[in-house]
Amino acid sequence: MIAASASDARRPAGRPVPGWVIAASAILVLIGLTDALYLTITHFTTTVHLACSGSGTIDCEKVTTSPQSHILGVPVAVLGLVFFVVYAGLCTPAAWRSPEPLVRYARLAWAIGGVVTVVYLIYAELFEIDAICLWCSLVHVVTTALFIVVVVGEALIEGAPSSAPAG
Amino acid sequence: MADSKTRQQRRAAERERGERLASNPKQAKQQNPMLLAIGGIVGVLVVIAALVGAKLLQSSPKPAKRTGLAPASVVHDVSTVPAATFNTIGAVKGIGGMSRIGGTPLEQGGKPVVLYIGAEYCPFCAAERWPLVAALSRFGTFTHLGATHSATNDVYPNTPTFSFKNATYASKYLALQTVELYGNRPVNGKYPPLQRPTAQQNALIQKHDPKGTIPFIYLGNYLQLDASYNPQILAGMSMQQVAHAMRDTNTDQSIAILGTANQITAALCAQTGGQPGNVCSTPGVTAAAAHLPK
Questions:
Q1: Is some CB atom of chain A closer than 8 A to the CB atom of B276?
Q2: Are the Cβ atoms of B141 and A159 closer than 8 angstroms?
Q3: What is the distance between the alpha carbons of residues A145 and B279, in angstroms, rounded to a whole number?
Q4: Is residue B283 within a helix (H) or strand (E), and if so which, with residue range?
Q5: Looking at this predicted complex, what is its ipTM?
Q6: Is B40 an interface residue toward A (CB < 8 Å)?
Q7: What whole-number distance in Å separates Cα of residue A39 and Cα of residue A83?
Q8: What's the CA gap between B267 and B219, in Å, rounded?
Q9: Contact with chain A for residue B57, Cβ under 8 A
Q10: Which of A31, A63, B125, B259 is least enclosed, having the fewest CB within 10 Å?
Q11: Band of the pLDDT at A166, cuts 50, 70, 90?
């Protein structure tokens, strides 16, 4: 009995979260953050250029200099960076294990908001700008993958019995 | 022992949950979060796939509709001239038509404006589009450049060239405005109007060239009027032949087109503050900059 208590004490308190969910979300957020930072730097500097094809369907510069590259006057690259910074906070192990409903809802809302924005941006690239930016597409893939990890993670946690000690 | 107890507790909890759900199927349906998650994911993936599918379906007949586009190989050749080739040509004596103008350069979205006004029938415009496309491609990317030629019944007939009519240009450094005033095939003795200048563009023409010379190429502090070289050197050539010849520094076409492109590039670099550095600091451009009108 004493051994069991000691073992439980070493286990992090809060909701039981599959390890892969925490790891996958952390890796994806890191990739997204790096990509968004790169896009932001290239947006604001003229010395760093996007390493990308400049002609045909794949044309990063055409996308990143298009009117659709700003939403309400804010560069989409900056919005992406802010998006992943907030996501990083919502996907820490502590945040995942937090029993606080507000954290869960915020993460779910962030994931849904992200994927809705991605759908709009894909639409804009395909039908309005008529070009694809590979670095932006990586952000879209990462955001969609994060959406999958978050909703599956939440579903698994919801379906699992709580590890919190009763009483 | 601890593990066994935990396992027993877990089984009991699962059993209890199973019984609870079995006794209330409606609740079971409501509380299956994995089904909801999978539904959401499938929904998102279906929407993205639908967008991509719609684009693919839309794209397939497009090439047939876009007749008149410049061949991709030509656009590629003209827009990817190696810096070494530009440098070999450098500054060319006898490149004409450029003058320095006063006033505050126009800006659009924080970028210096380049304004081209010409017409498809005009052989001098035809000649000037080659170096203009080559120079501007060093600062950004063209898409949907058209293919055309000057009028058959004018001087230097059928001079092969691009058309800016449906072209778009994206650049971090410059904002390009183009106006093709007229087509190249007369209808009832007149060339058909294609595009009209805006009030601001008209004001610029009135200010700098009330006679209305074309091509009129506004480069901020510089103005290019008329062709910088004789269109005769393009006579009888196809677009592919011109694009090929201009990359061979031993040809007249290369000297004229790339020499002019270097001069235009130097004028543009003066507007962008020397950006991009990997273009503006090349020997060909700095040599041309030294010959810009004072």
A1: yes
A2: no
A3: 39
A4: helix B283-290
A5: 0.79
A6: yes
A7: 13
A8: 7
A9: no
A10: A31
A11: very low
Of A55, A152, A156, the CB nearest to B141: A55
Task: Report d(CA B123, CA B152) in Å as an integer.
Answer: 10
Which class for B276: exposed (0-12), middle (13-18), buried (19 or more C-beta within 10 A)?
middle
- Which single residue is written with the structure tokens 């599959």? A18
| Mutation choice for B interface testing from A158, A162, A163 by most B CBs within 10 A | A158
Nearest CA in chain A to B171: A65
* Contact with chain B for residue A74, Cβ under 8 A: no
What whole-number distance in Å separates Cα of residue A62 and Cα of residue A51?
Answer: 13
Alpha helices (H) in A11-163, listed in sequence order: 19-44, 60-64, 76-90, 93-97, 101-123, 134-159
Summarised one tens digit per residue, pLDDT across range A79-97 is 999 999 999 999 999 999 9
Share the mean pLDDT of chain A.
Answer: 83
Interchain CB distance below 8 Å, B170 and A119: no
Asked if omega into A99 is within 30° of 0 (cis), the reply is no
Q: What is the separation, in whole angstroms, between the first and last Cα of chain B?
A: 93
Cross-chain residue pair A148–B41, CB shorter than 8 Å: yes
Residues B213-238: what's their mean pLDDT? 94
pLDDT number for residue B66: 37
**With the C-alpha atoms ordered B24, B26, B31, B37, is the resulting torsion angle positive or negative?**
positive
Burial of residue B234 (number of CB atoms within 10 Å: 0-12, 13-18, 19+) = buried
Nearest CA in chain B to A70: B109
Quick check: B51 and A119 CB within 8 A?
A: yes
| Bond into A165 cis (ω within 30) | no
Residue A55 forms contact with B (CB below 8 Å): yes
Which residues from A are below 8 Å from B32, CB to CB? 159
**Tokens in use for B24?**
């209330």
Q: Is B275 on the interface with A (CB under 8 A)?
A: yes
